[in-house]
User: Which sequence fits this backbone?
């Protein structure tokens, strides 16, 4: 999960610790651990890793079991890359699924130990170029690695009538499902600290009422791109009856979800959030054929370091093909950007981060020849 950092030293410590845990096999590369008790500060853009890679449990090392693992891994990778399971029913994907081994680039086996040395985990890495070409040919949108985050705010009422908000330090089955979903679907998920500041913004009553205004303020604190808030009633029979609200931009979706299977309850609400974000930010390859050019004016660039960081950030955006310096001033600069896509798409991608804040326009809306931003990274 993702937690806000207090300062640069904590960020460095956090990254080192994540690498150590990842190396130990405790967490996937893109999934951060939770550090509780740190003072909140907006996080940066949330890129994900491992989109074209999946680890599958195998019972043995037979050819039949290996091919089954390839198919399962392929289906999960397609779901991660596109953000939606429905594409698994596309005829071209169904056909490719039957020959998933043709898309495999690298495979490694890790023994599960115990009495059977044949059982273990098969780490399957697919060829990104082949997968992208397949999706392009099927005209299926791809969700970029820089992904919108979801702040998940859950309030549970037990059979005794007691209501509890679930924070990052809580041990709860519902939060375990949230973490698993974030891992499997490559969706950056934030869980609130529920410290004093959080509780002043969203107390139990506001959370139970799904107070949109309070939840938006909480989202601002965590720099979250969307909020998935739910109130869940646990019945005497053990069923979960939930009422949910998904807040993204100016859109608010309200829906209910009832399930007697406690172990998979969160799947449906989280899937709805992922599909909403993927359908908004997913790009069909044809969009990249519509090349565009725009001037980017950026305030707050007053030294070589900030200039270098700005260029590195822009180079990380898949829609930016070429960058040229146009004008350099005391505390600002102008860059000519050659785009693989439209300038509206560029503003949407930039809006996923917190480094550039628009000065006089709304991201995603029609814009002119010049995009005016302020560099806010410290």
Assistant:
């Amino acid at each position: 999960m993702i937690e806000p950092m207090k300062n640069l030293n904590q960020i460095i410590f956090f990254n080192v610790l994540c690498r150590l845990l990842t190396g130990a096999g405790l967490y996937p590369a893109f999934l951060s651990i939770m550090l509780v008790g740190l003072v909140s500060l907006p996080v940066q853009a949330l890129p994900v890793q491992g989109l074209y890679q999946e680890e599958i449990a195998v019972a043995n090392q037979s050819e039949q079991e290996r091919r089954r693992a390839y198919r399962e891994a392929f289906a999960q990778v397609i779901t991660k890359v596109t953000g939606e399971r429905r594409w698994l029913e596309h005829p071209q994907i169904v056909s490719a699924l039957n020959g998933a081994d043709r898309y495999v680039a690298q495979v490694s086996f890790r023994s599960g130990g115990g009495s059977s040395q044949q059982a273990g985990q098969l780490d399957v890495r697919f060829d990104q170029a082949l997968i992208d070409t397949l999706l392009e040919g099927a005209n299926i949108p791809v969700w970029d690695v820089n992904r919108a985050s979801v702040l998940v705010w859950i309030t549970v009422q037990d059979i005794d009538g007691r209501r509890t908000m679930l924070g990052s330090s809580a041990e709860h089955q519902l939060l375990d499902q949230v973490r698993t979903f974030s891992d499997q679907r490559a969706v950056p998920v934030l869980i609130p600290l529920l410290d004093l500041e959080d509780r002043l913004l969203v107390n139990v009553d506001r959370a139970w009422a799904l107070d949109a205004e309070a939840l938006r303020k909480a989202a601002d604190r965590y720099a979250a791109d969307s909020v998935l808030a739910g109130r869940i009633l646990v019945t005497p029979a053990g069923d979960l009856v939930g009422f949910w609200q998904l807040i993204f931009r100016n859109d608010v979706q309200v829906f209910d979800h009832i399930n007697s299977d406690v172990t998979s309850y969160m799947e449906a609400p989280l899937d709805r959030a992922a599909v909403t974000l993927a359908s908004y930010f997913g790009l069909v390859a044809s969009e990249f054929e519509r090349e565009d050019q725009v001037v980017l004016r950026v305030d707050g660039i007053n030294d070589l370091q900030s200039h270098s960081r700005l260029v590195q950030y822009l180079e990380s955006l898949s829609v930016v093909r070429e960058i040229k310096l146009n004008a350099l001033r005391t505390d600002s600069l102008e860059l000519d950007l050659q785009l693989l896509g439209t300038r509206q798409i560029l503003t949407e991608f930039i809006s996923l981060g917190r480094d550039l804040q628009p000065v006089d326009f709304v991201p995603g809306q029609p814009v002119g020849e010049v995009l005016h931003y302020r560099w806010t990274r410290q």
